[in-house]
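Self-study notes.
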Amino acid sequence: MKYLIWSILAVPVAILFGQSQTGDEILQKVDRNMFSENKIIVSRMVIHGERGSRTVEVKSWQRGVKEAFSEFLAPAREQGTKMLKLQDMLWTFTPSTDRTILISGHMLRQSMMGSDLSYEDMMEDPHLPNLYAASVAGEESVNGRSCLILLLIAKKEDIVYNSRKVWVDKTRFVLVREELYAKSGKLLKRMDVREVMEVQKRWMAKSIFYKDVLKDGEGTEFLVDSLVLDAVIPDYLFSKAALKK
């Protein structure tokens, strides 16, 4: 019911704040700012669990929305673990067992490396306009930045999160806050961007805090150490053979 109320209020709120753009148009600008056909990322996940915190370092190569290869660099016990995404398939390779495993079905909903992110989160299409219809639901300042609030409603039944509430920086068109909801309306996860950076004339998140509200622990920090957009990536990485190299 609360989502219906937000949808009804979206038009008058947009008029009140002088917002001439529709929610879908704003979401398209976010997508154009954030998406790069090819990218190479070196990042760290700081996982704050019930028994303390640990840091995982990973390098990822992404091509389009259907191909991604990741190699874990640290800590020592995770070093050499690799993940490969091809179309709708996801494999992991663990050097300690010398086994390649297909992650599918209910396994996709499991936590990745004990973090607040699931394998399912990795598999989702990053182009939000492909998945959601957006409406303007308000305006708010976040970390000193003027933001528009968008309500996103899934266009299809099989989308991981049925709805999202997102805060969009009005001039940089980067997401700075997000709430993810189940079909029942129950809040599942929160995301807050704590720092942004300018890369090749685009604004990107540099430090992100994730919290799965159904999971114990203090959340997961995702820190980008380096990011190259429109990178040249060799074809051999996007094959199962690369997992054991």
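Second protein, same conventions, sequence then structure:
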Amino acid sequence: MTFAFCFFAVVSVVGAVCAMTLRNVVHCVLAAILFFFGIAGLFVTLHAEFIAAIQVLVYVGAVGVLLALAILLTRHITGTEGPKETMKKWSRGILTGGAVFFALAAAIWIEKGWLAKKTAVSTGSVRQLGEVMMEKFVLPLEVVAVLLTAAMVGAIVIAMEEFVKKK
């Protein structure tokens, strides 16, 4: 492993841990954006520059701004949870994290060749990716675009309803 890969891995882990443990919601969003930058850096070290650029555009740009705006536009909800409810959430989180870890470990174990056939992988350019998307996957691409547009319109309607109720 290279130094850059280790650096971005540490940045990603620190960002994820801070996003889950910090008490201030704005700090959590900033830590999540740091996590997304770390993942983009990992893609760069793996020579997947296009995926890294998409990571920055979509997650850092769109999701980060969306989270920040959601915090600014919605009212702050405080709950009164006891220790039992908090422990239930932590135990569920640990169980879910463990399940995801074992699923990823199994996928890596299969990918490393213990159960998989050795096949040649061809690296394609962005142009080839675009041609495949526009030739073979036009319908799924358009369906996803319509769904994302509908989700954005729904989010705006919900935000506007809360804004109108406050006045």
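Instructor comment on the second fold: The longest helix spans residues 83-114.
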